[in-house]
Amino acid sequence: MHIHGSCHCGAITYEAEVNPEQTMICHCSDCQALSSTAFRVNVPSKTEDFKLLTGTVREYVKVGDSGARRAQGFCETCGTQIYATSAEEPRPVYMLRAGAIRERQALVPQVQSWRQSALTWLGDWPNIPAKQKG
Predict the structure, then answer these.
(1) Most CB within 10 Å of its CB: which of 38, 89, 112, 129?
(2) DSSP assigned state of 78
């Protein structure tokens, strides 16, 4: 599926190819804090399928709950989060943030990761398979 994305202020625009069947919900504590909400919806795009059209994505590196060093990409003007990826080269995949994707309505989560960190008030979502960790 071909998608188009941008930050809130429009300084960063991109396009990518994604498989909507790989859309996921992440409940890890980093996704909760970085998104300022209960979870984040992501969809992966291979590096060769992700194309930055305008702007410059600012990055900082965070060691995730998994122990991996992850580069968090965002717009330095408006703060919109664009992706997470490996802090080291080569970067095989960009985990694109569904909220910044124009076609987000078509990106229905197929799996939950880090369910052990899910906020209890979310309740159980039995129709979306869950992995306790990443």
Answers:
(1) 112
(2) T
Q: In one letter, which amino acid is 113? A: S
Describe the strand order of the beta sheet including 50-54 as a list of residue ranges. 2-6, 13-17, 50-54
Contact 128, 122 (CB under 8 A): no
| pLDDT tens per residue, range 23-57 | 999 999 999 999 999 999 999 999 999 999 999 99
111, two tokens: 């799996």
Q: What angle do CA 51, 56, 60 make, to 5 degrees?
A: 105
What phi, psi does 78 have (nearest 5°)? -105, -10
Domains along the sequence of the chain with CATH: 2-120 (2.170.150.70)
Query: Measured between alpha carbons, how far is 78 from 13 in angstroms, rounded to an integer?
Result: 13
Q: Check whether the bond before 109 is cis (ω within 30° of 0).
A: no
- Position of tokens 């939950």? 112
Task: HSE, CB side, 13 Å, CA atoms: give it for residue 94.
Answer: 25
Q: What is the pLDDT of residues 73-103, one digit of tens each?
A: 999 999 999 999 999 989 999 999 999 999 9
How far apart CA 89 and CA 107 sit, in angstroms, is: 28
